[in-house]
Design brief:
By secondary structure, this protein is mostly helical. The protein has helices spanning 3-18, 22-42, 45-78, 81-115, 122-151, 168-172, 175-205, 210-245, 247-253, 288-294, 315-341, 350-358, 362-376, 398-429, and strands spanning 156-159, 162-165, 260-261, 265-272, 277-285, 300-301, 381-383, 387-388.
């Protein structure tokens, strides 16, 4: 049994399951802060009731996300001890700040928000939810800074046979980190907005609490539209930077084999990695890859054939993940723009409401695709250009990793089923009576 492969599979399973809940926590917290602020300012009971309704769904989601996240950090010691030993001085400092500062702040403020309804004034209670949203985003920022360092390591020196931190601010404020933070956070806000719009659409189709859910839908629509546009722009900027620092990932994203000027994009391509070509190429658009990577149609783009085989990422997975992310990332601003135009006639457009109901999972599909692209596209490196994944795994037996992998899948599967059942049940039930 390949210990490295099993360890990667286990970490991927845990990470992707955890990531089903984290973006919704980030996105819903911001929308809850807007809802409760509106109640504090206007006294409109609809905003109080929608805050409590979506707040219950938020707490269920947060609880499952916390449980699944705790085990992730332990895997750096159990499955990736060589990685932790080599780069722990850099990577560990970022995780420590996230866990001991941002996450504890978020958890504390959530506790105050849960139990402070009758203890705090409306304005103070709304302010606490803003603190929850800010602390949650800070927690994500530290994790994204750590991941960005793995994608583009800076601010370190090799001393005593390991990487040691030399410039903390260089890591946090490097261009790769800032773009990844902005892109991931705006994508999370899209998820929160689509969740609120989808649940609201369900109740509007049932003609249940029309006034309340129309207000909730329109509030989420504003957040969704703005976040969709910002995510699209930040994705473009991030793609340009990836082309500069990770040319192998860019080539794999587009199944681009031959180094060429006016490099084309294919609307759909199936790569043949064995023969270094594409089995299927549909919709050739000359110069578009050059433009997307550099904003110059005539720029030269390095092909996979000029990258050593042992340093190429898996092309098929990387390419499909990229296409899924970009396709959905284009859909989000288009559908929210259409909804904005039709916002005053929602009840007259049941088809649009049904589209939004069934679109609830689409943002998380885009987010998961983005993480697959980021992590698989970085291979064979665990820290790009510094340490290979094959050198990072713990010296443990394959059956041990296989056993824990199976255990993770079973436990997480049961936990996810319970969490989603409770969210579905409460979302369908609707808010408490006035």
């Amino acid at each position: 049994m390949d210990v490295v492969f099993l360890s990667r599979l286990q970490f991927a399973a845990a990470t992707m399951f955890h990531f089903l809940f984290v973006p919704l926590t980030l996105g819903l917290s911001v929308l809850l802060a807007f809802m409760e602020t509106r109640y504090a300012r206007t006294g409109d009971e609809d905003y109080l009731r929608m805050t409590k309704f979506f707040g219950k769904l938020f707490l269920i989601n947060f609880a499952v996300g916390v449980v699944t996240g705790i085990t992730l950090e332990f895997q750096f010691g159990t499955n990736w001890s060589r990685y932790s030993e080599y780069v722990g001085d850099v990577f560990g400092s970022l995780l420590a700040i996230e866990a001991s500062v941002a996450f504890f702040l978020e958890s504390t403020f959530i506790g105050i928000w849960m139990f402070g309804w009758k203890k705090l004034s409306a304005k103070a209670h709304a302010f606490v939810m803003w603190l929850v949203a800010i602390a949650g985003s800070l927690s994500a920022i530290w994790i994204l800074a750590a991941n960005s360092w793995m994608q583009h390591p800076v601010g370190y020196a090799i001393r005593n046979g390991r990487a040691e931190l030399t410039d903390f601010l260089a890591i946090v404020f490097q261009k790769f980190a800032l773009l990844e933070m902005f892109h991931t956070l705006t994508a999370s806000y899209i998820f929160g907005a689509f969740f609120v719009m989808g649940v609201s659409a369900y109740h509007l189709l049932k003609k249940n609490e029309v006034q309340l859910f129309t207000k909730a839908f329109n509030m989420a629509l504003v957040v969704g539209l703005v976040s969709s546009v910002l995510a699209f722009i930040s994705g473009d900027l991030h793609g340009i930077h990836v082309a500069e620092v990770q040319p192998a990932k860019l080539a794999a994203m587009e199944s681009h084999w031959e180094t060429a000027e006016r490099a084309p994009v294919f609307l759909f391509a199936i790569p043949d990695e064995e023969n270094e070509t594409n089995l299927i190429e549909i919709g050739r658009l000359p110069g578009v890859l050059s433009f997307l990577a550099t904003h110059d149609f005539n720029a030269k783009i390095t092909g996979l054939k000029d990258i050593p085989k042992e340093e190429r990422p898996p092309v098929l997975i990387t390419s499909l993940a990229f296409k899924a992310m970009v396709g959905l990332g284009t859909f989000f601003p288009l559908i929210t723009l259409l909804l904005w135009i039709k916002r005053k006639k929602l009840l007259e457009n049941p088809l649009l409401l049904k589209i939004m109901l069934f679109s609830i999972p689409l943002p998380v599909v885009a987010l998961e695709s983005g993480w697959v692209l980021a992590e698989v596209g970085r291979q064979p490196w665990i820290v790009y250009g510094l340490m290979k994944t094959s050198d990072a795994a713990s010296p443990v037996a394959g059956p041990q990793v296989l056993f824990t992998l199976i255990a993770f899948v079973i436990v997480y599967g049961l936990l996810g089923a319970v969490g989603y059942y409770l969210m579905f049940k409460n979302a369908k039930k609707g808010p408490e009576a006035a």
